[in-house]
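Help wanted!
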Amino acid sequence: MLKRLLLIRGAEIVAFTLLATIPLVVSNSYVLGLLTLLAIYGILLIGLDVTVGYLGQVNLAHAAFLGLGAYGAGLSVSLLGFGMLSALAVSMLIGLVLGGLLAFPALRLEGPQFALATLSFMALSATVLNEWESLTFGAQGLTVSRPALFAHAVNAQGFYWLCLIFLALVWMAMRNLLSSQWGRAFEALRDSPIATDAMGIGTYRHKVIGFALGSALGSLAGGLYAFNFQYLQPLSFTYELMVILLLGVVLGGRKSLWGAFFGASLVALLPNLLSNRLLFEIISAVGLLAALFAGIRGLIKKTTRPFQAIAPIIALGMLVVGGILVKNTEDWRKGIFALMLFSVVVGLPEGLMGFAARFLTRLFRIDPPALPPAAALDTVLPAKVQDIGPLLQLEGLKRYFGGVKAVDGVSITVQAGQIHGLIGPNGSGKSTAVNVISGLYAPTTGKMMLHGKALPMGLFNVARAGVSRTFQNLQLFSELSAMDNVMVALKGVYRTPLPLVLLGLAKGEEKRAQADALALLELVGLRPHARISAKDLTYGDQRFLEIARALARKPELLILDEPAAGLALPDVNKLVEIIRRIHQRGITIILIEHHMDVVSELCDVVTVLDGGKVIAEGSAEEVKRDPKVIEAYLGTTNETAAMTVVK
Amino acid sequence: MNSIIIVQMAVSGAMMGLVYALIAYGFQLTFSTSKSINFGQGELVMLSAFFSLTLLNWGVPYWLMVPGGLLFGVILGLAVERAGVRLALEQKSEGWILLTIIIGLLGFSAAENIWGRDDRPFPTPISSDALHFFGISITPLEISVAVGVFAVMGLIELFKRKTLLGKAFEAVSADRDAAELMGISATRTVMLSYGLSGMVAAMAGILVSPITTVGPTMASALILKAFSVAVVAGLESGFGVVIVGIFLGALESLTSFYLGSGWREAPGLILLILALAVRPNGIFGKASIRKV
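Answered by r_m:
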């Protein structure tokens, strides 16, 4: 534990001390310029990593936020006479507000649509900066003078230290944020937006705030950029810069502050790399050798796909050969970026830092931080006093898809404290019914009441109202560990407001959340696997993890959507045991299941659906003997009925 | 008089709008089979136009150049699919967004160095002397754009409906997994869609070049508007792109008339962001049902 703290914090302190002392030793204005740029790009890339790394979206608007922040800071000095810090505050505010505004329409969007929205925003802001000549002087460019800091003029060296201080502050704040519930929620959002809402975490505010914060860092970097170069042109903030920034984040390594830092050094050094022919040759040759080595090793060990091994070799080979043939590498700048970025995206998707982190963790044998002891289950899921009476009432619930009547007038009353089975042949409307109850689909008509009050609309609100569910097709947050999957859904633990989280004051509740999550993992038998990421768990364990995560909502009503589907017999028995234990804590359960033995063993009442309608209700034994149920499952019960159907 | 000018602007704009619609149609082709689009499609338009110009300079007659240029577009489309899309689709990731952007950038850089950074005229046998209808002038060149756009889109739609390969294409678009189970190779169908999409891009390049001239940046504005058209109409909307394309072309022509030519990109970009906010599936697209 101590070793971990020493090594990781130590590395940070050493790096920042080194960076701060270089100008005292080397008094070279060129080096100073590079270092300043490094600090500015560091802030910029940490911001970009929030959307690209944590939210997992291709964000093409970051260069635009750099530009808008730069113009905002420059204009607030020249027009309003602001000082350094207030001008930087203005640029940050621009990113926060515009980023938030852009996130609202982009909110519902995924992947390509999100990329397109940000691409349009970039083009639009370039147009505005270019055309609003009365304010920005358009293509002529805007000259910015570096304002005073607390009435002191700032020289180049002082400005570098200021940038470095900002980088350190951003670094600490983002480390606190990303290791808190916020960071987990961002990643949850990336892995499964549906589950993020169904677990009451909320895609809405996390996406908006994540994007707004990232953009604010981008425009803060823009403010510093303006005071560094003291001359701005709209054309500096377009497509090409964007590609370079993406190169920085991807090559450095996503989801990593160090990755952003390495990426920033690369971006700052790129122009030199291209102008120095020998350096360029050496680096591209080293890259090719690395790709050859890793590619051939991967092919022999069969750990990489042939394309992933060969494509980077070809791309870097083109770089080496091109470097020899081409007269002027500057002319091929864009092509060189493209080849480098291509090799990294295909061959080293985790980036340099992801690779180095794995290597260093093994080298120094850094253990993950110790886990707190699990909390007592009684504090996490207090056993409820059984209240009697209806908990959930459905009346005439219908859901049509075009002409398909998936749920066609279902009325069910789920009594508090019971396990209510919902069965029916495939296509009978069970899953649609559950999706309507949990708010994924709006009902076509019909009433749904929880405790006699109307159930709210939408996944998120239903989850907040105390209904929690699992998914038939697993919707785990696959990159998060088992413990984080449960922690991210925990209800009622996270109370620290965002500014205090940034200051690192959420550590206490973090420990409490870990303890609670471990208790729930223990309930489903996953405690030993707390640190394993969800995608690496066995199929059965993934199903159990879904249950533990749903319990983290501390629900009144738990909906289990075919929890035994695909489980081996020992796991089915374990599942029955787990459901029983959950039931003992006073949680009402709706169980959708095909395994009749599981249903008969557990359920107090069973409702049978067929063709979207309720055809029988009663105890498991009763419905099993019901002729209509037998008919639904096995076809008609006697020959005359069959004859009438044929006629 | 003023209303004549407005109609004139709208008509000329609409003709350009058809080119946006054609490129947007190329996005639809790949989106329907693989839920992916080529973010570097503009570079395909530009590279095919340069290649066609080179063919003309070698003395290839215009009508032979057209199939040559289209073939080049097909090859580029296939290359993008192989290098940028297939791996990401196999991994079910969205890595293709970044990879197609990167490949586009490589193409851009290659064009800059092979053909130079200057804009060049693109000779065409079709006349650009204006014809007059009811006081509105329109050139045979503009008419040829419209004819070319409808010809290509019509032929591809016929291919999809009337041939076995085309039906396989529709099957994969409707349900990739089910099509695979029926023995249709989804990978090959995605390749086919990228080839066709590349051909459509080349056609757009050949049609638009005589009007805009050929240069490395010729498609950078074009492509943004094609994105707008595709998104506003809906990436699965079929001929909806034509209507939206004509509308957007007319709108931006009027914008540049009233606000100045620097603002002509703005309406497309604003429409795109608005469309994504209000109707992410487009005006003519159907809302998809989220399945879990």
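OP: Thanks! One thing I noticed: Chain A touches chain B through 53 residues (CB under 8 Å).
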